[in-house]
Design brief:
By secondary structure, the protein is α/β, with parallel strands linked by helices. It is 42% helix and 16% strand.
Length: 339
């Protein structure tokens, strides 16, 4: 009989999930690892390097039978699988099916098949809603998702499923995880004056893996997971630095390109509580920028700089706030603007 700790990881093909998988694999002498994810060519390619040393189970988390096949005899479950924005907002039915029904399937099957399993869930800073005027966030602050934030609603409901379950659990509300992120229309949903605190995928993954050794301290608790004071900035400064790194020049989009309220993010004023237990932080804002710079060659930066006008024109077409103004869409104007 194996003496290894049996860990089930959902969503291992995502940015954070893959970091968790890599770090679990580094301790494969301690852990018997099972990953559960959708069967896609991309996913198979990602997992191929691990396939001889981990168990790979493919299925749909919204399908109860698929989930039941991976829930037997587990010690820990790290639940990362989710539909995230912008897809979560564009396909609300899919987001609910994966984020809420999928979580419910997981919890109910674990209650039956691994009743002593410890579940660690990845939630989101989005559950606190718009904190533009009050950026200092604490775990006991009201849960008030922003108007139209379907993702946040599913996270809140999933948290409820977990917190009222028969399992032992802990919930980590993740701040903005920056690294390997893709530019999307959400770029314009976020007011430039937003206070933001980032965390790297590696640090986030380390928090989940380290949590496996601190079950007693974190059981039954919800934590804010962020990078800390050295990872804080204004969104406008973050964009300006990022544009410079990639050769895009200034953030000089037309007026009303960015929303002026109704998003999320802020500073986790009690985020050090989790760091004190798990000791997961290695990165800061400067290390993030340096890492991004390392990905861009001088040639790439020169080409981007030459084409920056074309690139920005393509980007601005993704601005829903600007589109709302131009089309006089009062419902969306009210969502994106206070005035």
């Amino acid at each position: 009989m194996s003496s290894k700790i049996k860990v089930l990881l959902t969503g291992a093909s995502g940015t954070v999930g893959y970091e968790i998988l890599k770090q679990l694999h580094q301790q494969k002498d301690r852990f018997e690892i099972t990953v559960f994810d959708l069967d896609k060519s991309k996913t198979r390619k990602m997992f191929s390097k691990f396939k001889k040393e981990i168990q790979i189970k493919y299925g749909d988390i919204s399908n109860n039978e698929d989930v039941a096949r991976v829930c037997l005899d587990k010690d820990f479950v790290i639940h990362i699988a989710a539909i995230i924005p912008p897809l979560a907002d564009d396909n609300q039915e899919l987001a609910y099916r994966v984020n809420v029904i999928g979580t419910t399937n997981l919890v109910r099957n674990l209650e039956k098949l691994s009743p002593h399993a410890f579940l660690i869930y990845s939630s989101s800073i989005s559950v606190y809603g718009d904190r533009l005027l009050y950026p200092d966030i604490y775990i006991n602050d009201p849960i008030l998702p922003s108007l139209g934030d379907e993702y946040a609603k599913t996270k809140i409901e999933a948290e409820g499923v977990i917190a009222t379950s028969k399992l032992e659990w802990s919930i980590f509300r993740l701040t903005a995880i920056m690294g390997n992120h893709k530019v999307s229309k959400l770029m314009f949903h976020m007011p430039l004056a937003t206070s933001m605190e980032i965390c790297s995928p590696a640090d986030t993954g380390r928090a989940f893996v380290n949590a496996l050794s601190h079950k007693e301290e974190i059981s039954g608790k919800i934590y804010n997971l962020g990078g800390g004071e050295s990872c804080r900035c204004l969104y406008s400064d973050f964009l300006n630095r990022s544009f410079k790194i990639f050769g895009l020049g200034k953030v000089d989009f037309p007026e009303n390109s960015f929303a002026d309220h109704n998003f999320h993010c802020g500073f986790y004023q009690d985020g050090d509580a989790l760091e004190e237990i798990l000791k997961f932080r290695r990165d800061n804002l400067e290390s993030y920028y340096k890492n991004e710079e390392s990905k861009v060659s001088g040639l790439q930066r020169a080409v981007t700089s030459f084409l920056k006008g074309i690139i920005k024109n393509r980007l601005i077409k993704q601005s829903e706030p600007l589109e709302a103004i131009r089309e006089s869409n009062q419902e969306l104007i009210n969502r994106f603007f206070k005035k």
